[in-house]
Specification:
The chain is mainly α. 70% of the residues lie in helices and 0% in strands. The longest helix has 36 residues, at 174-209. The protein binds zinc ion.
Length: 233
């Protein structure tokens, strides 16, 4: 019981930290030592930074200017908490679980950074790939031949390069393709294709019903990847 409680707390804190790190990545000019409100710039007190609870107690508004805080922040924290608890239930090995949580943290950071800046930070993407490689090599059962599992990612990277170089249109960054390449290492080709299809469907729905002009694709890919991975774990 205490194990699941700690896992939930870890997940929540990791989700909160990943979003904060992505915000700092997108706004390098903010170099204050403490987090500030996006809107009024007031420094936040430790109480405001408590994941989820702080949001509920402040009724989803900044305590200083009253501006609404997007529900996406606490929802991501709840998602990460649920995720770590569920992964902890399925993975008894502490080393495996650490790499799995690291992978989730990096995936959430990548999704949020892509949403804010429309580009995928390469260093974090590399670390994500390293986590998937370690999981594949040392912990998870082999899913098939590695080259086959790279196929969906290679197709996506080729498509992105083709669209950019020949059609001169940037529909999809190569970063999304590299994420799919790393995802294939742990999901295997079959489930990677499922995840990409689910993400494309979610992206199309957001494009059709949303108001945004450009839809970052990585957040959809990350959600689909994490859910499919948890499902087949
Ligand atoms: Zn404020």
């Amino acid at each position: 019981m205490i194990r699941y409680f700690l896992l939930g707390l870890t997940g929540m804190a990791a989700g909160s930290f990943a979003q904060c790190a992505a915000y700092r990545f997108a706004h390098p000019e903010v170099n204050a030592r403490r987090s500030v409100c996006d809107h009024c710039g007031h420094a936040l007190k430790p109480f405001d930074l408590i994941p989820v609870l702080g949001y509920i107690l402040r009724q989803g508004r900044c305590a200083y200017c009253g501006k609404k805080i997007p529900a996406r922040y606490p929802l991501t924290e709840v998602f990460c908490a649920f995720y770590c608890i569920e992964a902890g239930r399925k993975i008894p090995d502490a080393g495996y679980l650490s790499f799995a949580c690291g992978m989730v943290f990096l995936a959430v950071f990548l999704a949020e950074a892509d949403r804010l800046t429309m580009c995928v930070p390469g260093a974090a993407l590399g670390l994500f790939g390293l986590c998937t490689a370690v999981i594949r090599l040392f912990y998870a059962e082999k899913t098939g031949n590695l080259l086959g599992d790279f196929a969906p990612g290679i197709v996506m990277i080729s498509f992105a390069v083709f669209a950019e170089k020949i059609l001169k249109k940037e529909w999809m960054g190569a970063g999304d393709g590299f994420f799919v390449l790393a995802a294939g290492v742990v999901l295997g080709a079959y489930y990677t294709v499922w995840a990409v299809m689910a993400a494309s469907f979610a992206g199309l729905c957001r494009f059709a019903f949303g108001k945004e002009e450009r839809i970052p694709f990585l957040p959809d890919l990350v959600r689909a990847f994490l859910l499919v991975w948890l499902w087949i774990l």
